[in-house]
Every structure is written in structure tokens, then in C-alpha cells.
Amino acid sequence: MRTTSNVYTDLAMEAAGDCGDELDGVTVMSEEDGEAGLVTTTVHIHNEEGERQLRKSIGTYITLESQSLMENDPTAHEVIIKELSRKLGELHNLGKDDVALVVGLGNWNVTPDALGPKTIARVLVTRHITGTDAVARDIEDCVRPVCAVTPGVMGLTGIETGEIVRGIVDRVRPSLVVAIDALAARSISRINCTIQMSNAGVNPGAGLGNKRMELSSKTLGVPVIAIGVPTVVDAATLISDSLDYILDDMIEQGGCSEFYNMLKDLQAQEKHGIVQEALTPYAGNMFVTPKEVDAVIGRLAGIIANSLNIALHPGITLDDINKYF
Fold first, then answer.
1. Contact, 95 vs 312, CB < 8 A?
2. Which residues, 6+ apart, have CB-to-CB distance to 51 below 8 Å?
């Protein structure tokens, strides 16, 4: 029975791919939507055996992949927003008056880690106005009580993020917590073009090897949906993937193919370990992100926020969002 490699990934679909067909307690399903080049993969981890193999908590992980997420393509983004909001609806079952708390994890001073805070800035918060004279009755019927917070990181606050969120949950008593965070991927092809959502919670900072207190139904006492985008990849993975492309090209050209095939056949974790060992004296544990990350993070924050606005508020449509935001 195989488990995932030692190269860390936050994406359940990557972890499942490492195990090939040898998956006990795990179900994987995929579907494609050609309109936006969108591929949706759902991974269900059913039991402790599946949890052990994938090194992920029991639950459902839904991943949307599209190169359009990295591009300024409003038409494709509308398709993705509608699909993302629909999938979010499958992960929660809120009543009309149930309160939802949206948490933007990450450091707003570091662009690749600012997805959470930037998303919060575009979430439609209504808990302070629902049930009061500040909102008209016909509008109130269209919205649900939603509140949001950006707790920062422990390096800025001196407080564990999980402690802040748990304190707010104890006070506000939401029926659902939605946590948004930047993730790490194993493959450079998935950076900034993949959105994962899960009902299994999240470990802030896990992708950068800085694992903090878990945010989940076990620690907070309420259901938690985690939404994330891989915005970084470690340098060793980048170089290892680049070597694969180079080796493929060399093999196609027929140069010393036996030697190149031998290198190509090395296990992913072996190659990663060799590269990591070579980098350590010079670059340490370096993570890399694309140069256009500022613009991409802004677009991704808008896509996730708009999907949440539609999913959490029963009467809000994309046309309403485009009109007022």
C-alpha cells in the first residue's frame, strides 16, 4: 500500500494522483466543462485508511482547474464563479437566518499570502444590518447574516490565528465558518490556476512548513469550509519539474537516451530530495511565485469573493455583484 511522496502538497487531488489506483477509502471523480476550460476533480476521503494514504483529513475536497484563472478573461471567470458557488452550495446547508463567518487567513503584507485578506475586502457583510431598519425588507429577504474577519498572522499579532478565530466563534456563534488561505502545490502547472474547497478544515501555514492550530469542526465546534489557491511552489519542486522537461527534450532528440531515461525513472521524491540537498547551502527552504502574482491574486480574490456572495446570500446574483461592486 503506497502513501503520498515526501514532497508536500495542500491539494488532495495531487496526493491522490501519487497513489495511482491503489486507493482504499478514497473516491476520485473528474468532470470537464469546455466553456471555460474548467476541470473539476472531487476527492472523497471516507475513512482512516484513506486519511493515512493521502495525509489529509477525512472529508470532501473539490478542486477547480482552469488556465483562465490566471488570465484577464471576464467571460470565463463568470462561468467559474457560477460553478464555484454551486459547488460551495454542495458543502454547506444553511438556514435563512444562520450566521456565516468568513475568515481571511494570511499576511496582507506578503502578496502570495494575501489571498485571504484581499478576498475579505470584497465579501458582502450583512450581519450588522439584517434585522434592523437599516435595510429594506425586500433586500433583507435576499441576504443572510454574514460577518468577516482578517486575523493576520502570529508574527504581526503575537496571537495564534486559531485562538483569535475560536474566540470570535465563541462570541458570534456562527453556523458555518469559511476559511480562505493561500496553499502550496507540488506541480508548477497548478500555481494560481487551481481553487480547492473542502469541508475538512485547514491548517494555516502548512504549505510553507509553518503548521499552526487547525481550523476545523473539531477545534471550533462548527462546520468549516476551507477555500484555497496554490500561490507558491518550493524551489526544489520547480527545479525538479524543469529537469523533467529537459530530460524529455533530450530523450526526444536521441542523445544518450539510456542515461536520460535512468534519470527520468527516478522517483519524484528521490529527485526532489537530491535537488533539495543541493539547494540547502545556498537557498534554504525557498518558495517561488510567478512575477505577475499581484494582478493574479487580485483576480482570484474577486472570483472567490463573488462566488461566496452568491453561495451565502440566497437572493444575490452575479448581475447584482457586477452592478454594485
1. no
2. 25, 45, 57, 58
- Average pLDDT by consecutive 10-residue portion of the chain (325 residues)? 55 80 83 83 92 90 93 90 92 88 93 93 87 60 90 88 95 96 87 94 66 85 95 76 70 63 61 64 67 89 95 85 70
pLDDT at 206: 55
Instruction: Give the pLDDT of residue 205.
Output: 59
| DSSP conformational letter for 202 | B
- 235-252 and 257-264 are packed helices; what angle lies between their axes, rounded to 10 degrees? 150
Instruction: Give residue for cell 481571511.
Output: 104
Residues paired with residue 234 on neighbouring β-strands, in sequence order = 287
User: What are the residues whose beta carbons fall under 8 Å from the beta carbon of 203, sequence distance 6 or more?
Assistant: 211, 212, 213, 214, 215
DSSP letters along 17-61, please? Answer: HHTTT--SSEEEEEEEETTTTEEEEEEEE-SHHHHHHHTS-SEEE
What residues does 229 pair with on adjacent strands? 182
CA 138 from chain center: how many Å?
A: 34
DSSP 209: T
> Can you give the pLDDT at residue 316?
83
Residues contacting 19, CB < 8 A, separation 6+: 2, 3, 4, 26, 53, 54
Q: Contact at 8 Å (CB) between 77 and 49?
A: no
pLDDT confidence of residue 256: 58
> Max CA-CA distance within the chain?
78
Q: How far apart are CA 217 and CA 7, in angstroms?
A: 27
Give this prediction's pTM.
0.83
Q: What is the pLDDT of residue 130?
A: 65
